[in-house]
Specification:
Layout (H helix, E strand, L loop, with lengths): L1 E22 L9 E11 L4 E6 L5 E6 L4 E14 L12 E2 L12 H8 L9 H7 L8 E2 H15 L1 E2 L10 H7 L1 E2 L1 H13 L5 E8 L14 E8 L3 E6 L4 E2 L4 E7 L8 E6 L5 E12 L9 E6 L3
Parallel strand pairs: 8-9
Antiparallel strand pairs: 1-4, 1-5, 1-15, 1-16, 2-5, 3-4, 6-7, 10-11, 10-14, 11-12, 12-13, 16-17
Length: 304
């Protein structure tokens, strides 16, 4: 059993008005993870609160407010039955050859097209060339091997840098700088595998430690990549931690574009200098091994 506590507090100089806020905090129900309980506490109390499903089937809670306040607080508490599954190499028989792009069954293409389409410019072909180095020059390359090696290469060769605000940096920049956040690494891997003709999605969720070694990306929301293989379905790859499969990963939402899976976003109305900052506290832990990953508090102050 996994327990998740996610607390976000926005701070303001004077009471301000709040517009609609949308939250993606509830893990997706599936054969590998089942929500046992979920509670959401919001202060001030919203005048309207509704949970809907987005286009991918993820749960989105929509809140609207009438009260003004100098603080806005969202606290999500979830208990989850998590049954991670490692990919089975003996079942993953999909392959690619040097100089080719992967070809899906024509029946699957309409559903996978958006996940195959590249989103970022690669004018000098650097991302495609980097992806091609994982394809063997002689004979077929098993796709599970290729994707695992790519994920491990990012983990081993790139430096992790925590960055909570702003969009992911361009994958070409991540490749050149060899540094980035979990979101940056996920986007780089997505663009790289799409250059090989593979369908890939951006995943937002949480990472925890089921072993004594900690995981990079804990203490806040986490991001990784998943790729569709015809023989095995969607498989998770976490280049930040070098993980293959969803061990230690709690999936909340997945989409073709990171902008579709923001954990929390909304609007407020007040003077330009009223916003003081945002505090985030996330605690994700196995109830059987409580205490392996303590809560981490993060504070983001408004720049001057």
């Amino acid at each position: 059993m996994i327990s998740i506590r996610h607390l976000t507090t926005y701070r303001y100089r004077t009471p301000v008005a709040f517009g609609e806020h949308r939250m993606m905090l509830r893990p997706q129900e599936s054969h590998d993870q089942r929500v046992l309980s979920a509670d959401l506490l919001i202060s001030p109390e919203p005048s309207l609160l509704q949970t809907v499903h987005d286009v991918s089937g993820a749960s989105v809670t929509v809140a609207r407010f009438e009260a003004r306040s100098d603080a806005l607080r969202f606290e999500s508490r979830v208990r989850l039955d998590h049954q991670p599954q490692a990919p089975r190499p003996e079942l993953a028989d999909d392959e690619i050859r040097h100089g080719e792009t992967f070809a899906y069954d024509p029946q699957d293409l309409p559903d996978l097209a958006r996940a195959i389409s590249r989103r970022h410019a690669d004018p000098d072909g650097a991302i495609a060339a980097w992806a091609r180095q994982f394809v063997r020059r002689a004979g077929p390359t098993p796709l599970l091997d290729l994707l695992s090696e790519m994920s491990w290469a990012i983990h081993d060769d790139f430096a992790y840098a925590l960055r909570l605000q702003g969009a992911p940096q361009a994958p070409a920049e991540t490749l050149e700088r060899r540094t980035g956040s979990c979101r940056d690494f996920a986007v780089l891997m997505i663009e790289a595998v799409r250059s090989l003709g593979l369908a890939a999605q951006f995943v937002s969720g949480y990472v925890y430690s089921s072993a004594k070694a900690g995981r990079t990306g804990g203490g806040h929301t986490h991001a990784w990549t998943r790729v569709y293989l015809p023989s095995s379905g969607w498989i998770d790859f976490d280049p930040t931690n070098g993980l293959v499969g969803n061990v230690d990963l709690i999936r909340v939402a997945s989409a073709c574009d990171p902008r579709q899976v923001l954990p929390l976003h909304g609007t407020w109305a007040g003077a330009p200098g009223d916003f003081l900052g945002m505090d985030v506290e996330v605690d994700v832990a196995s109830e059987e091994a409580r205490g392996l990953q303590p809560a981490t508090r993060l504070r983001i102050a408004q720049g001057r």
